[in-house]
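Lecture notes, unit on protein representations.

Consider one protein chain, 185 amino acids long.
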Amino acid sequence: MKLKRTQLINIAIILLLALYFFTPIGFHAKVYLNRLISHNPVPVAERTQKVLEDYDFKLVDTKGNRVNLIDYKGQVVFINFWATWCPPCVAEMPDLQLLYNAYGEKVAFLFIARDKEERVSNFLVKKNYDLPVYFESGFTPKPLYSAALPTTFIIDKEGNIVVAETGSADWNAESVRNLLDGLLK
């Protein structure tokens, strides 16, 4: 029995989809595609910005030290919720590392992993990332809650949420750096 050309094409498409969705090759392809389609994050319009009034957000770092978002009140804060199993999260990590390298001394960065601690530690070592990673140990304040990953917030010194971005983005873009520079003045 000879297969027709359309049947061969259909089989090839099914095989490619199976590779994409059900193998590690697919995960890496998703990361690559997310890097290609990353966009510049857009600040929230001033009239629709929410104010973070409840800074009580308990976290634990990778060494077991407890911290609270209250400790960073009055500072510019960059919060990123992510996981190692999330292709868009993994896709934006190189840009986040570059941004952290440039602003880590001036901005409070909180990379909050929604993942198992061992997986996160292995991921950071394997990728050679040096980011301040935390895990939630209490309730997330309502304005910062999102079921989607990655989700990133930038909070100004007055507690205004000036960026609330869901999905991967180009966090090392000039527009983000200009925004942070303006917030730090």
